[in-house]
Amino acid sequence: MIDFRMHTFRVLYHEMNYRKTADRLNMTQPGVTQHIQYLEKYYGVKLFEYNGKTLVRTRECELLKKYADAVLAEEEDVRRLFTNPGSLLLNVGATKTIGEFVLNDMVNRFLSDESHSLNLVIDNTENLLYMVENSELDFAIVEGVFDKKRYSYRLFKKESFVGICSGRHRFAGKQVPLEELFKESLVIRERGSGTRALLEQAVADRGFSLECFKRTVSAGNFRVITDLVIGQNAITFAYAPIAKSRENLCVFEAEDMKISGEFNFVYCSERAAGEKIRLFAGGGLP
Q1: Alpha carbon separation from 93 to 57, 138, 140, 223 (Å, rounded)
Q2: Nearest to residue 163, comparing CAs of 151, 176, 149?
Q3: Cβ 190 vs Cβ 196: under 8 Å
Q4: pLDDT at position 54, please?
Q5: Closest CA to 262 of 234, 239, 280, 246
Q6: What is the Cα–Cα distance from 254 to 251, expressed in whole angstroms?
Q7: How big, in percent rounded to 5, are the helix, strand and coil portions of the chain?
Q8: Cα dihedral sign, 81-128-131-204
Q9: In this predicted model, what pLDDT tens digit does every residue of 7-38 receive, in sequence order?
Q10: 139-143 and 259-267 as β-strands: parallel, antiparallel, unpaired?
Q11: Of 182, 181, 163, 180, the residue nearest 172 (C-alpha)
């Protein structure tokens, strides 16, 4: 079992406040401090420091967090093995592009074995990574940008990131100067999604922001997004499979903004997740 003081450390890592950590754990604040001081003495490092009045994580804190997440993942794996011998239940997360447009064949192949069961969670990147850290998921398959220093990961595939509009839009099938894009209404995913983060980064790399567009509308569902793109004659940016999801959608290319993104398996422990990813992906890994 993971040491109870490590649990305190993981909560403080997220809360970054001793009082809030104490409240969440139903402890006293000095009790939280004692747990952290014990770990710092045991490992011989400083885990948290104050920069003025702001609590900050040290490099050693980040390393210990990654180790603690891996240990917790392996512990949960063993517990489930004891609870359900002879069967395999996978808790898998996927971002919305991947879950709705990419995984169908893989899921059906995995479930063709009657000893296999699946709990598939579709959510945005930020929420899925939090669930991975807390061993609520065996692994997640996420699109776009995430902190690769903080998690273990394995490439699933690379995918083109394209401009999408309706077939009647003036951009349909064309290459468009970047400045022309800003005259249009943009429909984007909600904050925390990998799709939005990838677009924000691409636009920022060229010295602009999403505020440069005439209007932005956010939605957390691709059916709603494509409805708005068609109904409002707007544009969006998404991975190529989205453009193939409806007959009246077309792609366009923004000049000097050719983007491709990665789909990655993300997890905490190779020992706990590696074989599960292989079983789930089958021949789908590069």
Answers
A1: 27, 8, 4, 20
A2: 176
A3: yes
A4: 93
A5: 239
A6: 10
A7: 45, 25, 30
A8: positive
A9: 999 999 999 999 999 999 999 999 999 999 99
A10: antiparallel
A11: 163
